[in-house]
From TrEMBL:
Catalyzes the oxidation of 5,10-methylenetetrahydrofolate to 5,10-methenyltetrahydrofolate and then the hydrolysis of 5,10-methenyltetrahydrofolate to 10-formyltetrahydrofolate. This is Bifunctional protein FolD. GO terms for biological process: L-histidine biosynthetic process; methionine biosynthetic process; purine nucleotide biosynthetic process; tetrahydrofolate interconversion. GO terms for molecular function: methenyltetrahydrofolate cyclohydrolase activity; methylenetetrahydrofolate dehydrogenase (NADP+) activity. NCBIfam families: PRK10792.1, PRK14189.1. The lineage of its organism: Bacteria, Pseudomonadati, Pseudomonadota, Betaproteobacteria, Burkholderiales.
Length: 284
């Protein structure tokens, strides 16, 4: 078997076109959806992510601002900027790019963002709403994965799903979404004994560990759907995922590639969350 390759680029383009249409409608009604992205420090990967997010906003017709600060920005100054953006009516979504420098408490920063503008969905209120089944914002990466599964018409109800990775930003919300859609979900972490035993039983495997090529074909059930969230820089300088693409492709029924899979979907869903935040202000 050779897996079907899930084209995250094409699906993200389709979603962004829908966002453009919704943006144009909002603008007609006097609201230009606005996203503010804050970047602290000079992490090269973060700079690329922030640039890509801003470019996608502009292309879809949204107002976007990028605030870039040096590594030495104090936590108090960052919190003051967030407070100003919380009160800025031109801004509907606020995103602080992670990771932050060590002297800044990331939890405090996330909690400072107004929940109604927390388009990343990381605020504790939004995490709680997702957990209790009434999400305001779904975190962009797991949201994108759900859209990929939907577009591939993967049957989630009754399926066995394994999420490898348990972060607050990817693994945990991913597991909640799959569970809400009717899957029986196992969340694995770095302490999991015999990871392959778990993954081999799964109809759907979502991998988000940041460990290049750690899931190999022999750990996957024939025909399973494998979504690779990982973004790693290989020794050859090229991007690669957490799945060993060559061997997994031989066994899986469908597989998302890196690059060109979950990454573009994450950005598309950020735009969706921003437009939803702006539409809610109109509904008021
Ligand atoms: P974190 O480092 O926050 O979490 C990694 C998780 O993986 C932890 O729960 C950890 O376990 C688990 N883990 C690590 N090693 C193993 C292992 N050998 N076996 C099983 N589980 C393991 O990472 P993130 O969730 O933030 O990101 C994961 C990956 O996804 C990264 O490559 C990141 O770059 C990428 N990413 C991609 C995005 C996209 O848009 N495509 C967006 C966000 C992230 P433990 O809890 O025990 O420490």
């Amino acid at each position: 078997m050779t897996a079907r390759i899930i084209d995250g680029v094409a699906l993200a383009e389709k979603i962004k076109e829908e966002v453009s249409v919704r943006t144009a409608k909002l603008i007609q009604q006097g609201i230009k959806p606005g996203l503010a992205v804050i970047l602290v420090g000079a992490d090269p990967a973060s700079q690329v992510y922030v640039r890509n997010k801003a470019a996608a906003c502009q292309k879809a017709g949204l107002h976007s601002i990028v605030e870039q600060y040096g590594e030495g920005l104090s936590e108090a100054d960052l919190l003051a900027r967030i407070d100003a953006l919380n009160n800025d009516p031109a801004i509907h979504g606020i995103l602080v790019q992670m990771p932050l420098p060590k002297h800044i408490n990331a939890h405090r920063v996330i909690e400072a963002i107004a929940a109604r503008k927390d388009v990343d969905g990381f605020h504790v209120s939004n995490a709680g709403l997702l957990m209790t089944g009434a999400p305001l914002f779904i975190p962009c990466t797991p949201y994108g994965v759900m859209k990929m599964l939907e577009s591939e018409q993967v049957v989630i109800r009754g399926a066995v799903a394994v999420v490898v990775g348990a972060s607050n930003t990817v693994g945990k919300p991913m597991a909640l979404l799959l569970q809400a859609a009717g899957a029986t979900v196992t969340i694995c972490n770095s302490k999991t004994r015999d990871l392959g035993w778990h993954t081999r039983h799964a109809d759907i495997v979502v991998i988000a560990t940041g460990r290049p090529s750690m899931i190999t074909g022999d750990m996957i059930k024939s025909g399973a759907v494998v979504i690779d969230v990982g973004i790693n820089r290989g020794a050859d300088g090229k991007l690669c995922g957490d799945a060993d693409f060559q061997s997994v492709q031989q066994v899986a029924g469908a597989l998302s590639p890196v690059p060109g899979g979950v990454g573009p979907m994450t950005i598309a869903m950020l735009l969706v969350n921003t437009i939803e935040a702006a539409e809610r202000t109109l509904a008021k």
